Amino acid sequence: MTNFYYTIFITKKFKLMRPKALMLSCFLLFSMFAFSQELKPEEGTQQNNSNGGDQVYQEQRSYETKQTQRNHEWGFYFGPSWSFPKGGIPELKTELTYDNERTRARTGFDFGLKFNFFLNNNWSVDFNAQFKSAGQKVQYSGYWHELGYSEENVNFTESILYFNFPVYANYYLTENIYVKGGIYGSAILSAQRREGNVFSDYSDVGNLYKGGDFGVSAGIGAAMNVFFLEWRYYRGLVDITFDDDKLYNQSVQLICGFKFGG
């Protein structure tokens, strides 16, 4: 309307209110109206292009998220462990009385399987089944016998084998580094004691130990492609012997292994 009055004003001022001038005014009004209508589709097209770009961006982000989602894994592992139980060891019936007792860690070798189920990119639940060694080395010195007192050292090695079932919650600090914590249950497979050196015979002492164990475990690990490495600590929460002196399993474990499916 402003354009219309402005056109009338111009024609009055210059006294052009004739048929030709009127036709010119109508032509100008029609041209301005057509020009304004041509602008609207361009704005709508621009908005549609913007919406289409947002949709493509969201689809791309969704695709990238799916691509980085971790897959479930399984694997096998093996490695040494060092067992150093806390408490007094169960004693065999003997007529000897020792003055000194020294305990040392026993080195064993463990192996097992793991199944790692990812809840998201940061958390997973890790189920394990493994053969795990336990026990310790004990040295007695200074004892009385029927002929008197002796300072001779007597060495014993306690060797216990468990079928162990740890369950962990893993938290990934980075894509490859993670910490873990959980619980475990164990069933005893054998318990033996050896007196003397490595060439001495073992004797069965299974009657001194209970049938299983239960405790907590924690550790840290690193993974790269199909290879992984972990350091774990185990601490038993129940007395594993029938003896009056309580004994709790305790050990550390260094394992390396290979994983698949990730």
From TrEMBL:
<feature type="region of interest" description="Disordered">
    <location>
        <begin position="42"/>
        <end position="62"/>
    </location>
</feature>
<dbReference type="Pfam" id="PF13568">
    <property type="entry name" value="OMP_b-brl_2"/>
</dbReference>
<feature type="signal peptide">
    <location>
        <begin position="1"/>
        <end position="36"/>
    </location>
</feature>
<feature type="domain" description="Outer membrane protein beta-barrel">
    <location>
        <begin position="99"/>
        <end position="240"/>
    </location>
</feature>
<feature type="compositionally biased region" description="Polar residues">
    <location>
        <begin position="44"/>
        <end position="62"/>
    </location>
</feature>
<protein>
    <recommendedName>
        <fullName>Outer membrane protein beta-barrel domain-containing protein</fullName>
    </recommendedName>
</protein>
<dbReference type="InterPro" id="IPR025665">
    <property type="entry name" value="Beta-barrel_OMP_2"/>
</dbReference>
<keyword id="KW-0732">Signal</keyword>
